[in-house]
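Figure 6 in text form: structure in, sequence out.
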């Protein structure tokens, strides 16, 4: 508490001193969510001992000339269910002070930074996921000339927020990154149609070897390069990172090296967009503490190679999270818009979006490994080596059509296969296959009111008494069976809206568990302030963003949420 008071008074004094010369600029945001929960044995929802739960945070950012400072107050009294157990108490969860001009930018305190696509380093936060991997230390950015940027970071990662204070990871992280836009640096290329950007990074972590059974490397580095090419309507980019030996809890303390590579090709013109992506990952769990798991103290970021879904049954029932221990993944997406006035486009045009993504286990070769070898290397694996072991497959199509000035519709179909033995989301064993149909309708009334409706159904695969897969009309459905969701959202005016949703587990093999999940929300919006009050049942599931997921347990109760930006 003394440290909290000292830091607050210091910032206040600094701000007051600067205000005598120039008032500067304050920005920020506030978010607070309160829940009062009930016990509901039908959906396995429990009531916490405190009955009420509260998550709150407030960001305040200050700039004055070349000076900048900021802080975030956090409060978990106690934390909402599904958030990490490492979130507890009230205090300062982020704070920094810095100075920057056209040549140099230096920040001390909490640092958020990303090198390239994040394969070597990404320190970021997403409070909705309960995730914060900030570095606590120093960052230096130097721009010696236009088109040339160098970055350096050095610090401890945030591991937890306990008793109102930041708790650091056991290891320390440091890194360097450089990027050059050749068309700006080299004058002869300034007027060329081909636009080229290249970059490279090196990141290292240090953690003391306190293991009495193994000799563990105390310094583990990863390094690599990237390139981005743009030519007219075409874009091609790629990045490759190599990681040294890094025995950890994640990989069973093996001494294999690791790699991560991604490549993206894109083409876009009016009415047509094409995206092709590929990713190869092996043994790329990279943490500042080798003993941690789940989402704790992850240094790097492995982008998901599948489409980000938003519909309830698609996004949260059987989602897929990136597998840092290894995956080879591919994605293809095409979006085409039929012109207005054409036979298929009609008066207002029609858009079709098709997407396919697949992830499989990398091929791991053991024939050349001597079982008597004491190096700890257990296999070899090359770039984009593929096995026939499927992790995930998603085939989906979305058709958007506007019929008139008042009515529009989106029809979507998803065929998803999830290997639950690898990307575990339920207690079910083996493959979970689902077919999902979604119809979304939107209607605008003359008085500027509007109605949006969603109708969703999910059907899972079935097995006979011997565990063999059978047709969708026979046998017993896997996991909790088939689901249906209906959602209605009515916007009364620019300030008030009300929504009603019900999810029904109509295909649950246990007849007494075929529960409805009604949920009602009333919302009020005024400029930058949003208030929502909700009540009802919520089923258990996962909340995922970019391949990073947070479990959301089943609940029954009241939720009040407040957000404001300034």
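Output sequence:
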């Amino acid at each position: 508490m003394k440290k909290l008071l000292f830091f607050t008074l210091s910032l206040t004094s600094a701000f007051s001193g600067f205000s005598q010369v120039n008032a500067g600029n304050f920005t920020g945001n506030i978010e607070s969510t309160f829940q009062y929960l009930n016990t509901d044995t039908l959906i396995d929802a429990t009531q916490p001992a405190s009955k009420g739960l509260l998550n709150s945070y407030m960001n305040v950012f200050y700039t004055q000339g070349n000076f900048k400072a900021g802080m975030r107050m956090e409060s978990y009294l106690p934390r909402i269910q599904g958030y990490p157990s490492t979130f507890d108490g009230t205090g300062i969860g982020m704070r920094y002070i810095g100075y920057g001009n056209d040549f140099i930018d230096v920040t001390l305190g909490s640092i958020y930074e990303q090198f390239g696509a994040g394969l070597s380093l990404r320190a970021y936060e997403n409070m909705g996921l309960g995730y914060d991997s900030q570095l606590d230390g120093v960052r230096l950015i130097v721009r010696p000339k236009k088109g040339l940027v160098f970055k350096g970071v050095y610090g401890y990662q945030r591991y937890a927020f306990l008793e109102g204070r930041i708790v650091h990871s056991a290891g320390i992280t440091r890194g360097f990154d450089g990027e050059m836009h050749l068309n700006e640096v080299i004058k002869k290329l300034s007027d060329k149609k081909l636009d080229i950007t290249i970059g490279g990074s090196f990141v290292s972590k240090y953690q003391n070897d306190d293991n009495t059974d193994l000799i563990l490397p105390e310094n583990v580095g990863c390094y690599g390069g990237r390139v981005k090419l743009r030519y007219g309507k075409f874009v091609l980019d790629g990045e490759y990172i190599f990681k040294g030996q890094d025995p950890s809890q994640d990989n069973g303390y093996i001494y294999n090296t690791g790699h991560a590579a991604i490549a993206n090709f894109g083409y876009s013109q009016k009415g047509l967009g094409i995206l092709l992506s590929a990713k190869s990952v092996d043994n790329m769990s990279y943490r500042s503490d080798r003993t941690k798991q789940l989402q704790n103290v992850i240094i790097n970021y492995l982008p998901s190679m599948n489409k980000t879904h938003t519909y309830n049954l698609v996004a949260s029932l059987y989602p897929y999270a990136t597998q840092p221990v290894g995956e080879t993944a591919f994605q293809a997406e095409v979006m085409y818009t039929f012109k207005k006035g054409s036979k298929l486009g009609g008066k207002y045009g029609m858009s079709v979006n098709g997407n396919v993504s697949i992830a499989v286990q990398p091929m791991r070769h053991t024939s050349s490994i001597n079982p008597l070898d004491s190096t700890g290397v257990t296999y070899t694996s090359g770039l984009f080596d593929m096995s026939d072991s499927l992790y995930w497959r998603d085939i989906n199509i979305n058709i958007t059509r506007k019929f008139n000035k008042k009515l529009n519709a989106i029809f979507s179909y998803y065929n998803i296969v999830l290997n639950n033995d690898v990307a575990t989301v339920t207690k079910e064993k083996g493959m979970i296959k689902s077919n999902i149909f979604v119809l979304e309708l939107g209607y605008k009334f003359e008085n500027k009111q509007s109605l949006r409706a969603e109708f969703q159904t999910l059907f899972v695969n079935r097995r006979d008494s011997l565990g063999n897969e059978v047709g969708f009309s026979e046998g017993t459905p896997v996991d909790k069976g088939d689901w249906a969701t209906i959602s209605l959202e009515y916007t009364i005016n620019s300030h008030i809206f009300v929504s009603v949703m019900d999810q029904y587990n109509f295909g649950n093999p246990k007849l007494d568990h075929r529960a409805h999940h009604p949920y009602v929300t009333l919302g009020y919006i005024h400029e930058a302030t949003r208030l929502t009050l909700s009540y009802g049942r919520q089923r258990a599931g996962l909340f995922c963003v970019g391949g990073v997921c947070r479990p959301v347990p089943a609940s029954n109760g009241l939720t009040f949420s407040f957000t404001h930006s300034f």
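Caption detail: The chain has three helices and 33 strands.
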